[in-house]
Amino acid sequence: MAETPQEPGHETLSNLLQESRRFPPPADLAADANVRADAYETAAADRLGFWEEQAGRLQWERPWDNVLEWEPPFAKWFTGGTLNAAVNCVDRHVEAGSGDKVAYHWEGEPGDTRTITYAQLKDMVCQAANALLELGVTKGDRVAIYMPMIPETVVAMLACARIGAPHMVVFGGFSVDALGSRIDDSDAKVVITADGGYRRGKPSALKASVDAAVQDRPGVRHVLVVRRTGQDVEWTEGRDVWWHDAVERQSTSHEAEAHDAEHPLYIMYTSGTTAKPKGILHTTGGYLAQVSYTHWAVFDLKPETDVFWTAADIGWVTGHSYIVYGPLSNGATSVMYEGTPDTPHKGRFWEIVQKYGVTIAYMAPTAIRTFMKWGEDVPAQYDLSSLRVLGSVGEPINPEAYTWYRKNIGGDRTPVVDTWWQTETGAIMVSPLPGVTEGKPGAAMRPIPGITADVVDDQARSVPDGGGGFIVVRDPWPAMLRGIWGDPERYKETYWSRFEGLYFPGDGAKRDADGDIWLLGRVDDVMLVSGHNISTTEVESALVSHPKVAEAAVTGATDPVTGQAIVAFVILRGEVGEGGEGLVKELRDHVGTSLGPIAKPRQIMVVPELPKTRSGKIMRRLLRDVAENRSLGDVSTLTDSSVMDIIAEKLPGAKSEE
Ligand code: 6R9
């Protein structure tokens, strides 16, 4: 990306989008909220004391000696303390008398269901822990997990946590190569998988990919296989072990050892822009303290009555923190769904909400925009009145998607919390609080209590209200990554070298006139048009605010006149049809009116799909390759690689205006 031209007072990132809608918290929710406005001040007055109090939500075997040991950029939290993550998530709730409480209402894609109580979960986790020990896994060994969304996936993670073997979950949709390189980098000894899983109505194979990935990797001593679909699998005697043989005959008791607060809990790979994925390392005490607190505070969780649903894959950090560790550490009841939102019909999510009486739902903007595309009459067929808080995560939520979500899913009553965080931050960092914040569509608003995030310009100066720049974190936080697995230099270089002493997540942001924070997408995606830095997010949001557009992705393509020019790809709402020439002009004018002439796309292409990762992030890098007529970069983390062919085919026929 080109350097920003710097004149004094020049904004690092343009601030084009204006939004005046406001949604105050519902009075009853505010009156009974877990967190009140004073939490911000209390936490700011004594940040470490605040996090100590949150760590007190957990059960410690031995209390910590120091809250924080900070040798920038390396942090250790709650040093000297010991605890067991699995005991915190499961055993202690059973011991407190909640054994019969439902931990998960699990719904398989074909419609099969399982209800798992905390007592059952405890037995399953103990059995799996005993089986892993029998397979020779010892404390500190890494275990790869390549699974569909089934209860055994949670059990496998907790069994690893219980015996102190860091887990490394790889998305079930990732390729053999992606799995293999992650096994290599983490040096995993055992892989836990299933024969297959259900996606879009079909059983997809998982074991076959594991076979291909481990055949030249003798370091993997065992492959533990859950039978989910019953499909045929190849079998390597001595290496492969069925879950139902190895786990289900084990004792349901296992004495858990308390691990050091800084003992590694898991590694999760993020692809980033370069070839080699980064193994983000999380440890136990600080991570659990922050996921537990944020799950309780940001969603206003009432563990006795709420039914919580994160509609995301466990292979994404969102699944780790808000399907597994957050909800379980709080003793909550969760829904877990195996499949896709349109199988067997487009109302599947809302049917699930109605069936289980979901009160809090958390999902990605990409899903919300897909529901917009399908039309509001789909959710209207279901009783969604149980919902009281809605959450969004993964990308900036466009104001239009936010208001659609609030109105059509939340019945115009529920607050929407737009939660900004990353694999690296481990837990939510910037978000409204549903009982405190007057919500603005599209804004993540404020750092949560105890977090010191800021927006700075490229000289690391805090930008004034109304200014744009980069989001940074000033002080260490409990759930922060402890490094990149095996590569401390890359950790320093990636996150701590851009601004001296500040954590740099790589996202653009702006602070509005009230001081509230808006996330503007990855800095790598920012476009430089005639000397102005324009965020893809703002242009996309302007496009999505047009009644005919369901989804938009914008990228900057090299342009002889303006340096870069804005190229937009749009998906139309179901009822609109093909669009045509008139529509392109209409959309360009609409962007011009919303954001100003500088933001008018040079080209707009109507496409049926966009390239996305399994967590729903649009891969703008690939769109830039298409827009600049280059061959495509790495597509291994795409949900559906045929999407790019469809888009590339469209390109030659696409007309640019003026
Ligand atoms: C949790 C998760 C992290 C990146 C992050 C940012 C984007 C996530 C967002 C958001 C705007 C939000 N992101 N939440 N952008 N508003 N509410 O998504 O982790 O997969 O590591 O991605 O996602 O760009 O830097 P991860």
Automatic annotation (TrEMBL):
Processing and modification events after translation: Acetylated. Deacetylation by the SIR2-homolog deacetylase activates the enzyme.
One of the GO BP terms on file: acetyl-CoA biosynthetic process from acetate
GO molecular function, one term: ATP binding
Domain AMP-dependent synthetase/ligase stretches: 96-485
Top enzyme category: ligase
Domain Acetyl-coenzyme A synthetase N-terminal residues, every copy: 38-89
Enzyme Commission number: 6.2.1.1
Any one annotated GO CC term: cytosol
Reaction catalysed by this enzyme: acetate + ATP + CoA = acetyl-CoA + AMP + diphosphate
Binding site for CoA: 199-202, 318, 530
Post-translational modification N6-acetyllysine, affected residues: 617
Cofactor: Mg(2+)
AMP-binding enzyme C-terminal domain span: 538-617
Keywords associated with the record: Acetylation, ATP-binding, Ligase, Magnesium, Metal-binding, Nucleotide-binding
Residues engaged in binding Mg(2+): 544, 546, 549
HAMAP family: Ac_CoA_synth (MF_01123)
Record-given protein name: Acetyl-coenzyme A synthetase
Native source organism of the sequence: Spinactinospora alkalitolerans
Gene this protein is translated from: acsA
